[in-house]
Write a structure and sequence with these properties.
- This is ClpP/crotonase.
- Belongs to the enoyl-CoA hydratase/isomerase family.
- InterPro entries: ClpP/crotonase-like_dom_sf (IPR029045), Ech1-like (IPR045002), Enoyl-CoA_hydra/iso (IPR001753), Enoyl-CoA_hydra_C (IPR014748).
- This protein is about 50% helix and about 15% strand.
- It is α/β, with parallel strands linked by helices.
- The protein has a 6-stranded mixed sheet with strand order 1-2-3-4-6-9, sandwiched between helices.
- Helix 1 crosses helix 3, helix 5 crosses helix 6 and helix 10 runs antiparallel to helix 11.
- The longest helix has 19 residues.
- The two termini are about 25 Å apart.
């Protein structure tokens, strides 16, 4: 899947229907504008053109860490003309922040599950990234920090919006966001940020994530995509609204060929064969 790769985001296909997306900006995967734009581009390309991709694992090519967060040197160069009045400067900065937020939120827009497999340092923006992934694994050597208050900011790219909704301990979320202290994989699991801690480092956690991705890739791609959309909808809507939305999805799903293919597979005790989620139509 080299066609999806960019300078600092590498994409490979380690198993059928499974992509591995690796952050690869030396030396510590710190995000400048080009990096987060490439990150969004890769996921949007997978969403648009990955016709038979069924699961994605997000990791780091750096054996020592996932990401050190924001490139503070690049941030220091983000200036606005001092002759512009504060209101107009604010509008320019707001536009930049919204673009940044949308970029880091790209895994949530991806129609297939995105499994984060992190190790080593996961600082600042790394927490923002995790909040938009569907499943989160960490190596036992992972160390986390919601770092933004240490540079005089409230976390603004996703952490304060997503993490309280995807975790269960609101008191601990606030403690970690207010203090910016480091916390371990064990504490991240206690928070509810992680579903699994894998003993080891990069190789071990990526291997575990890929095994889950292979299991997902063997399921009906329509059913998995529908499940992701319904879970996202449920997060932000009432039970009644979610049930109505589910009825809409399954009124189509009950007519899909995937249902019969799954039944035949169970009866024959053979792996099911599913059509790609969508066909890519060549442009004339």
């Amino acid at each position: 899947m080299a066609e999806f790769s960019t300078k600092w985001v590498k994409v490979s296909e380690p198993a059928p229907h499974v992509l591995l997306v690796e952050l690869a900006r030396p030396p510590v995967n710190a995000f400048n504008t080009d990096f987060w734009q490439q990150y969004a581009h890769v996921f949007d390309q997978i969403s648009e053109h990955g016709s038979d991709v069924r699961a994605v694992v997000l990791s780091s090519a750096n054996p020592k860490l996932f990401t050190a967060g924001l490139d503070l040197h690049a941030t220091s160069t983000l200036t606005v003309d001092d002759t512009t009045d504060p209101a107009r400067r604010a509008l320019d900065l707001r536009k930049h922040i919204l673009e940044f937020q949308r970029a880091i939120g790209a895994p949530e827009r991806c129609p297939v599950p995105v499994i984060a497999a992190v190790h080593g340092l996961v600082l600042g923006l790394g927490i923002d990234i995790l909040g938009y992934c569907d499943v989160r694994f960490a190596a036992s050597n992972a160390s986390f920090s919601i770092k933004e208050v240490d540079v005089g900011l409230a976390a603004d790219i996703g952490t304060l919006s997503t993490i309280p909704k995807v975790t269960g301990n609101q008191s601990l979320v606030r403690e970690l966001a207010f203090s910016a202290r480091n916390f371990s994989a064990l504490e991240a699991e206690k928070l509810g940020l992680l579903s699994r801690i894998v003993d080891g480092s990069k190789d071990e956690v990526v291997s575990a994530a890929l095994e889950l991705a292979k299991v997902i890739a063997a399921k009906s791609p329509y059913a998995v995509a529908a499940t992701k959309q319904l879970l996202l909808h449920s997060r932000d809507h009432s039970v009644a609204e979610s049930l109505e939305y589910t009825a809409t999805w399954n009124s189509a799903g009950l007519q899909a060929k995937d249902t019969m293919a799954s039944i035949i597979a169970v009866r024959s005790k053979k792996p099911a064969q599913y059509e790609p989620l969508r066909k890519i139509i060549s442009k004339l």
